[in-house]
Amino acid sequence: MSVPFSRLPEEIFKELARMELANRGVAKRFDHILDLAYGRKGKLKWELMNSILSDPTAPLPERIIPTVEKSRPPVYSAELSALLMSTYSHKKKPLTRNALRSPPTLPARANPESDAARLLGPLSKRRKVNILWRFYTDQIQRVYPPLQVAVESGSAGETRYLTDLTSLKHAGIRAVGMQNQDILQDIQSLATHHTCLANSLEDQEAASPSPLSSSHLSPRFIRRRFAHLLGRLPILTYREVLDTTAQPGQHGGKYRVSISPSAIHPSLRFSPNHLVNAGADDIAWFESAQLEEKMRKEFSKQQRAERLSSGNRSI
């Protein structure tokens, strides 16, 4: 039995309205659709996050309340810790490693040896558990999950980034997100694709069709939207390091977070990839502005000297 269209939930109508505005070229609504499609928000985000919210290799933390099984503190996996401490993946201010060990929302009374604990009494263990889990839940909502993890391989001169499952297994790490599906590469190509003008009819026929040519929206608009999306797609990279304390069969390494150089992100505003070389007109304008500023300062200095001398004569 079909449900009448008028009885559809209100949220569906809102989503249809957002899609209509996105098709009209409203940047905010277009970004909303991209965020849903690539797991920056919504159900897909948490499906991508599930793979890094647990750490099967970490030992089970001890209970804060000995008789309560659910009183164990949260565990920050290596991948999640790297994301929480990076400005590229955290929506707000990234955390420090000390904040992961002891959240800033935890009162000083949590330390039984502190002055506050001796003066006011120790913090309730149940309250400590609630604070730890509330902080953990709040922080995982503020990070963007990666689409994949790459293994950094090779020397400094010839660095390669491997995303296939065999390389991950050899490095001793797990796959995350949409591993080995080349989705990130597709987004990068859409964010950097430029329409080339062919010089001849033969070149036009040989040229591959632009993936943006079939859209009624301008290619520049679509490129910028995907470039903004790249700014919300952290790239998680694993680099193996020599660990003499590791047991046989164990791997030592470190995760780091970066973003594509083609991304539009506040931290990349003044990066070389986003700066344009100054031309002759720009240099002339800059020199003219410098000269004008110098003349203005000299004129102000001369005026102050004249006022000072006139004041001395009147005295």
TrEMBL record:
InterPro entries: Cup1-like_N. Residues 10-49 form the LYR motif-containing protein Cup1-like N-terminal domain. Pfam families: LYRM2-like. This is LYR motif-containing protein Cup1-like N-terminal domain-containing protein. It comes from Fibroporia radiculosa. The lineage of its organism: Eukaryota, Fungi, Dikarya, Basidiomycota, Agaricomycotina.
